[in-house]
Specification:
The protein is of the alpha/beta class. It is about 45% helix and about 15% strand.
Amino acid sequence: MAAYNGKYAEELIANAKKIATPGKGILAADESTGTIGKRLSAINVENVESNRRALRELLFTAPGAMQYLSGVILFEETLYQKTADGKPFVDLMNENDVLPGIKVDKGTVDIAGTNGETTTQGHDGLGARCAEYYKAGARFAKWRAVLKIGANEPSELAIQLNAQGLARYAIICQENGLVPIVEPEILTDGSHSIEKCAEVTERVLAATYKALSEQKVLLEGSLLKPNMVSPGTEGPKVDEKTIAALTVRALQRTVPAAVPGIMFLSGGQSEEQATVNLNAMNQLDTKKPWTLSFSYGRALQKSTLAAWAGKEENLKAAQEVFTGRARANSEATLGKYAGGAASGAATESLHVKGYVY
């Protein structure tokens, strides 16, 4: 089937390939004002613009960290912010050969007639917003769809609505020069087995790629941000090799080789868990036509926030923690992480039931 071949096609392919560079990944720093407020509150820091900017500047200026990143997802406020010295964050990223990205969805809404299942809103005016974000320097975008596993969930209705919503978002992004990151997240809430998660993940990804094909999305100019295949937080535990094997198998069965990169979400895993699981996938001796990398938010920031605590005197130490975690995940994308980046906070579960970004 023909795919998008408009004026941005070559640029989209080049940027998607760049983001999927082995050894690099994405920092998800696109928390909404409310969500980052919860993070700041946990370290007794007030949720005001200056503190939000200070946290992002801490991350973006951490010595040595940017070499491990190919992209940073920003919230709209952050796309237009500057460092304390007056340099736009977008310019700072470009100087470090890191592509700026932007969260474009408007959150989830319940699907009437379902048991609390959701779809994602934000299509109205999306084309105009994408055009403005492109002018401001953004080169890729993110849209999060959320599904859950239950006795009768996800329903076929929820799967189809979210797949079609992701596909509509993706083609609108491409028509306006932004590489779409397609994110169909299956929450880890529940007591289901890893086999159940594998089955649901395959159903969701198959529906998603069918919708993307029907919408004529240019797969070479797109990226996938899926959950890892894992048991529910209250389900039977498994080791990283099992998570790696079932995750890669689900991807082999559903994700076309034309997609350059699969950038995993951390989904409430501890920082160390997210790194170890990614490393295990990249050590697998099997067919992997796409780069397997990371697009982590909490799993790159938790220990850094704890080290910083909003205090200027802690800035250098916090930046060293962040660079260490970025390096660890870079090594994991190559299957070369040998451990050693796990401080106390790095081993704590980051799971939040019904997580809202």
